[in-house]
Amino acid sequence: MKLLAALVLVAAVTGCVTPPGPFELVSCPRADVPNAAYVGPYYGVENVIPVHALAQDLRCAEAFKAERFPQGFVTLYGSSRIKAGDPLYQDVKAFGSAWTQRYGKQFPIMSGAGPGLMEAVNQGALEAGGPSIGYTTYYDRDPNGTPERPYGGNPRVQLNRYVSQGLIFSSVATREQAMIKHSAAIVIAPGGTGTEWEIFQILEMMKSGQLAKVPVYFLGSRDKYWRAFDARLDDMAQRGTAGANELAFRQHVDSGDELLRRLAADLKL
């Protein structure tokens, strides 16, 4: 299969044949993981993942979205470490439920399929009876791991229990790309370094015109959760390294209820 795909690509480049359609010659393994529509093999750290695995990740994700959810997702990014007893967890869960009851058939909820706030929004969506989507990769730390293979690579423990349909990517970078690319709207809840990585990918792609404009919301009390982040962006604007007008597309909402109202209006629902 790999050799055939390579030969077809060479032939297409040299003009010998018509290139294949976007989902031809694609094998999307599932590895018998419940609720997983695709399971990419675990190869190790990003540096050693072969190119064909990156291509498989992306093409299988594209096929999943095109075949099942062509309008895309309302994607929530946020902390894996904020637990169920936190009011923010409960607010995110309530938003996932309310959104799914009203609009989940058109724009399903999607998260990174981990614990914390990702689990919260998936729980709300699943318990509301709608699709609950998760895009993830490998995070199961192996106490006997090596620098190249720090994780155990067990696909059965990567999706949180509230994901009804999930993808497990070989590559964390491809997973991030697919999450952004497949979002009809983006909700950013408080988080740590992983969430910050995602925030700045989204901001830069939107700012520089590398991504079609979609609604981008920052959720939670601005004073409590986003003061330092706003100060960092303000500092960039004052130093001239980023224009305040270039980042003006981002919106803030204090609660899931406010998010529900404003996002429905943005998506013209």
Quick description:
This protein has helices at residues 2-14, 51-68, 87-103, 117-127, 172-181, 193-207, 222-225, 227-239, 256-266, and strands spanning 36-39, 73-77, 109-111, 132-136, 165-168, 183-188, 216-219, 250-253. By secondary structure, it is an alpha/beta fold. The protein has an eight-stranded parallel beta sheet with strand order 1-5-4-3-2-6-7-8, sandwiched between helices.
How many structural domains does the protein architecture include? Answer: 1
Instruction: Sketch the topology as an H/E string, one letter per element.
Output: HEHEHEHEEHEHEHHEH
From the 3D structure, determine the CATH topology. Rossmann fold
Oligomer: single chain
**Estimated structural class:** alpha/beta
Enumerate the spans where pLDDT stays under 50 for 5 or more consecutive residues.
1-20
Q: Give the end-to-end Cα distance, rounded to a whole number of Å.
A: 44 Å
Describe this entry's structure for a reader:
This is AMP nucleosidase. This protein has 269 residues and is α/β, with parallel strands linked by helices. It has a single domain (27-266), classed as Rossmann fold (3-Layer(aba) Sandwich). It is 42% helix and 13% strand. The protein contains nine helices and eight strands. It has helices at residues 2-14, 51-68, 87-103, 117-127, 172-181, 193-207, 222-225, 227-239, 256-266; strands spanning 36-39, 73-77, 109-111, 132-136, 165-168, 183-188, 216-219, 250-253. It has an eight-stranded parallel beta sheet with strand order 1-5-4-3-2-6-7-8, sandwiched between helices. The model is unreliable at 1-20 (pLDDT under 50).
